[in-house]
């Protein structure tokens, strides 16, 4: 009996071009996420010259910028970073839900990993915890996920003709 085949991403074959698309809103939190993402990429051998950082106003604008990056820069992966902090109105749910849904659609439409590092939290304290204090740095974690997916997709090979690619 043959063993079950297992495939998983590795972190020793992650060279390539990465784009970090970041919403500036709540920049006091998001700046730490960007630092964490760049740190993870560089630690794993990605050349700093192969990292593009694109700033947009906030999480609402992330999907359009990610789409343009995928169309024009053709990165191996995109890391979307931002912070949506709940307030007293339903605005939070609309922004967070639409942003997350659009980011997921883009990675499927373009057959390219788009790691979602957009914090959706109830308080500024929770955001700070996820930006490098108690709960780790979600920017670092998002970059790790992006690199793992780049490696995994390389091992799985090209998408069959007619799948993936431009929308």
TrEMBL record:
GO terms for molecular function: 6,7-dimethyl-8-ribityllumazine synthase activity. (2S)-2-hydroxy-3-oxobutyl phosphate binds at residues 88-89, 130. Keywords: Riboflavin biosynthesis, Transferase. Its EC number is 2.5.1.78. One of its GO terms (cellular component) is riboflavin synthase complex. The active site is at 91 (proton donor). It comes from the Bacteria. InterPro entries: LS, LS/RS, LS/RS_sf. It is an enzyme of class 2 (transferase). Gene3D superfamilies: Lumazine/riboflavin synthase. GO terms for biological process: riboflavin biosynthetic process. 5-amino-6-(D-ribitylamino)uracil binds at residues 25, 59-61, 83-85, 116. The keyword tRNA-binding does not apply. Pathway: Cofactor biosynthesis; riboflavin biosynthesis; riboflavin from 2-hydroxy-3-oxobutyl phosphate and 5-amino-6-(D-ribitylamino)uracil: step 1/2. It catalyses: (2S)-2-hydroxy-3-oxobutyl phosphate + 5-amino-6-(D-ribitylamino)uracil = 6,7-dimethyl-8-(1-D-ribityl)lumazine + phosphate + 2 H2O + H(+). Belongs to the DMRL synthase family. Forms an icosahedral capsid composed of 60 subunits, arranged as a dodecamer of pentamers. Catalyzes the formation of 6,7-dimethyl-8-ribityllumazine by condensation of 5-amino-6-(D-ribitylamino)uracil with 3,4-dihydroxy-2-butanone 4-phosphate. This is the penultimate step in the biosynthesis of riboflavin. This is 6,7-dimethyl-8-ribityllumazine synthase. It comes from Kushneria phosphatilytica.
């Amino acid at each position: 009996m043959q063993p079950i085949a297992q495939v998983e991403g590795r972190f020793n074959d992650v060279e390539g071009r990465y784009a970090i698309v970041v919403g500036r809103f709540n920049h006091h939190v998001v700046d730490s996420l960007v630092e964490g993402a760049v740190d993870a990429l560089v630690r794993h051998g990605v050349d700093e010259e192969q990292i593009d950082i694109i700033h947009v106003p906030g999480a609402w604008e992330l999907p359009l910028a990610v789409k343009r990056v995928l169309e024009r820069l053709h990165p191996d992966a995109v890391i979307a970073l931002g912070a949506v902090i709940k307030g007293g109105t339903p605005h939070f749910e609309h922004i967070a839900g639409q942003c997350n849904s659009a980011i997921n659609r883009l990675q499927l439409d373009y057959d390219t990993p788009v790691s979602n590092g957009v914090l959706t939290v109830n308080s500024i304290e929770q955001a700070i915890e996820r930006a490098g204090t108690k709960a780790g740095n979600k920017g670092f974690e998002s970059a790790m996920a992006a690199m793992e997916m780049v490696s995994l997709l390389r091992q799985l090979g090209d998408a069959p003709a007619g799948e993936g690619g431009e929308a």
